[in-house]
């Protein structure tokens, strides 16, 4: 009888243990990358989970420098439906490599997926230039576009009635001034050969081509 009793207890405990293992919550997030453009990309996510598992939060971690992004990097929380979600990243830089991982969690479990790497498409430099106040200081922001930089500068012409519809470029400008110190965001002072009104366009030449800013009007006063 004792042997029979112990056998019953053993198989009962084994059955309960097996059932508890089957009920263990499991969340496995994965992603694919589509629609890669210069400034944006679409991340499609899928979450594999047990029938008894609910997802409280899901999304992605992403980074330009960290090959295994975490919650210490950039995060986008997504809305999931039936284990599917989608995230669109915007305001990216051209010709740049990024790293992204999906995550999903609830009150008891959390999982982070494998890293997916993608590189945005290249292009000519995209330049935004803004004149500060009414002076000659100019703030410049450049998305290089993934090419190798060969030259940075600005093209300058006199702001006369004759030139009122002319957009300065390296072929038609009266003066081409090289900018030696630059970055993706910098400020410098525009100049003129003598006191007058000028039009100028900032330019950058890379292996992908040449990019220009919009035309800037500025004034060099008498000293």
TrEMBL record:
The keyword Signal applies. Residues 1-20 form the signal peptide. InterPro entries: FN3_sf, Ig-like_fold. The keyword Cytoplasm does not apply. PROSITE patterns: PROKAR_LIPOPROTEIN. Gene3D superfamilies: Immunoglobulins. Keywords: Signal. This is Fibronectin type-III domain-containing protein.
